[in-house]
Design a protein that fits this description.
single chain; mainly alpha; 9 helices; about 80% helix; globular
């Protein structure tokens, strides 16, 4: 039961972050929207580095692999995966017939939800691997240490849930649906953790690739959608300020909470 509760803690962080949509007014002010887009970009950039790429290299080193190889291969595969999806998802970028700044809502929200969800899968698997280590003997990992990691991931997940649900509400999605989409992006974490515990010996060797794959997907979404959107039209400085603040906050959370 302790392990089960521990596995649900990261999901709770995402759900609480997504619930921030219920405190929103009907539409986000344009200045706030620019800041939040930048903030989301900063959060995802920092998470890609400290939550995914660095752990990928650390894990590869522990497994006796070439430190940078899984991180590089997984990252490139993540970029290619999102690039292929970018072609498949209907392209409705700015056109001469449309007002400046109008883009496909479906494409932008799909990219963001998918990127955060992909990030949560290997993060959940990493948590599962920690709990699996605590269940085994002579690993040096304790249940208390595994729960501490889960709490750290939950705190990191809070802004990620919010950066999904709040922009969705701003684009006309109802608050309950926006909350549901944000929350569902985090449900993959306990699922990934349980699968990892059940298949520890098969999953752990490929975790460095999965972590860096998610990093590549997140970086692609940031570069393709979030940063360009935050820089369109007026108040673009707020977008850059948002990137800075989001990056620093997520960096501090990742490093301080391990």
């Amino acid at each position: 039961m302790t392990i089960f509760i521990g596995l649900l803690i990261p999901f709770l962080g995402t759900a609480l972050g997504s619930a921030m949509v219920f405190f929103m007014k009907n539409k986000i002010n344009n200045k706030v929207q620019k800041f939040l887009l930048g903030f989301a970009s900063g959060v995802m950039l920092a998470a890609s580095i400290w939550s995914l790429l660095i752990p990928s290299m650390d894990m590869a080193e522990e497994q006796g692999k070439i430190t940078w190889f899984p991180a590089a291969i997984g990252f490139l595969l993540g970029i290619v995966f999102l690039l292929i999806l970018d072609v498949i998802i209907p392209h409705l970028h700015i056109s001469h017939e449309k007002p400046e700044g109008m883009k496909s809502k479906f494409k932008k929200t799909t990219m963001m939800v998918l990127a955060v969800t992909l990030h949560n899968i290997p993060e959940g698997m990493a948590a599962g691997a920690t709990f699996a280590g605590a269940m085994l003997e002579n690993t040096g990992i304790t249940i208390a240490g595994a729960i501490s990691l889960a709490i750290g991931i939950a705190i990191q997940n809070f802004p990620e849930g919010a950066i999904i649900s709040m922009p969705l509400k701003s684009e006309g999605v109802s608050k309950p649906k926006a909350f549901l989409y944000g929350m569902l992006s985090g449900i993959v974490e306990p699922i990934g953790a349980i699968i990892t515990i059940l298949l520890t010996h098969a999953v752990v060797p490929i975790l460095p690739y999965l972590l860096s794959f998610a990093a590549g997907a997140m970086i692609y979404a940031v570069v393709e959608e979030l940063i360009p959107e935050s820089q369109e039209g007026e108040h673009s400085n707020l977008g850059r300020i948002g990137v800075t603040i989001g990056f620093v906050i997520m960096m501090v959370l990742d490093v301080a909470l391990g």
